[in-house]
Write a structure and sequence with these properties.
This is Transcriptional regulator. GO terms for molecular function: DNA-binding transcription factor activity; sequence-specific DNA binding. The chain has about 300 residues and is of the alpha+beta class. The protein folds into two domains: about 5-180, Jelly Rolls, CATH 2.60.120.280; about 190-300, Arc Repressor Mutant, subunit A (Orthogonal Bundle). About 50% of the residues lie in helices and about 15% in strands. It has a five-stranded antiparallel sheet with strand order 2-9-4-7-10. The longest helix has 23 residues, at about 160-180.
């Protein structure tokens, strides 16, 4: 099998590219005021962590699963883990505050065990960025700075971890409340179906290459394929099968556009039995053969 694929980067690899040192706990804050940094990773890639991206001035342009997003002053972007992301450009006057964190850190806060989990709420919503007021953007920036200061305190400082996790929890709930307001005041507490949808999306991100059957995902969730399809359709607006096909198609587009692999190698990377079945699948999804899409993408 060809080894070329959409690259996956850890948080430590990103920090190294930015010239940053790893912060003590499973959380990292990057606050940039001044000349905009060079984009550390230009190629399409995945990362193993969620990213909060707050623009205080200027603008940044990036693609998330091949969808272009332009984030401007007082806008906040949430990038979930494992999505395909590519930074396109940043303006010279860009000022940002960013935060990434590990799943282990979420568990440490105890949020994931509570009846109201804003991190799960964020993962189910379809709009990844929101417009904030000036006051709201400044407040989020101050909360990120507070989390940074708590994280960088000396280890023997009394209640250091407790203060850090509480500051982080406050930040997370504030962000979730902004998303809730944008989503027409949808309730913050997830329903059982929304929880299933969030778990399905996480499973899909991890297994979509080698597992494209509804039965696999239904088995992982201990439900029937019919109930899975109904639940995803009700909560997200598309069927589980449509989401699986979209994820595979997105990955195929990125590989065809950014790699030098042959179409047969791309088919193998995506666990199709042969090039014929991959080409048939791709044309059904896009209206183009893989070679036609590659040729069209090369002139963009």
């Amino acid at each position: 099998m060809s080894t070329t694929a959409v690259l996956r980067h850890t948080s430590n690899e990103l920090l190294e590219a930015l010239g940053q040192t790893r912060q003590p706990e499973g959380i990292h804050i990057f606050i940039q005021h001044g000349p905009a940094p060079e984009i550390p990773v230009l190629h399409p890639h995945r990362m193993d962590f969620p990213l909060f991206f707050l623009v205080l001035n200027g603008e940044a342009e990036l693609n998330i699963n091949l969808v272009n997003h332009r984030i401007q002053k007082n806008q906040f972007l949430f990038i979930s883990p494992h999505t395909i992301r590519q930074f396109v450009r940043v303006s010279e006057d860009l000022n940002i505050s960013c935060m990434c964190f590990t799943p282990d850190f979420i568990m440490k806060t105890g949020i994931a065990k509570s009846s109201v989990d804003p991190s799960a709420y964020l993962s189910t919503k379809q709009s990844p960025h929101i417009q904030l007021t000036e006051a709201e953007a400044l407040m989020l920036n101050q909360l990120m700075q507070m989390v940074y200061l708590r994280n960088m305190e000396e280890e023997n400082n009394p209640y250091r971890i407790e203060r850090l996790t509480h500051c982080f929890s406050l930040l997370l709930f504030e962000i979730a409340s902004f998303f809730a307001r944008q989503q027409k005041h949808m309730p913050l507490k997830l329903t059982r179906k929304e929880e299933l949808s969030a778990t399905f999306l996480n499973l899909l991100n991890m297994h979509f290459k080698e597992q494209r059957s509804l039965q696999f995902y239904a088995d992982q969730l201990f439900i029937t394929p019919k109930y899975l399809t109904q639940t995803i359709k009700e909560t997200i607006g598309k069927t589980a099968g449509e989401l699986i096909d979209e994820m595979v198609t997105t990955e195929a587009k990125v590989l065809l556009h950014t790699s030098s692999d042959t179409i047969a190698q791309v088919a193998e990377n995506l666990y199709f039995s042969n090039q014929f079945f991959f080409s048939k699948f791709f044309k059904n999804q896009t209206g183009l053969t893989p070679s036609e899409y590659r040729k069209a993408a090369s002139v963009l």
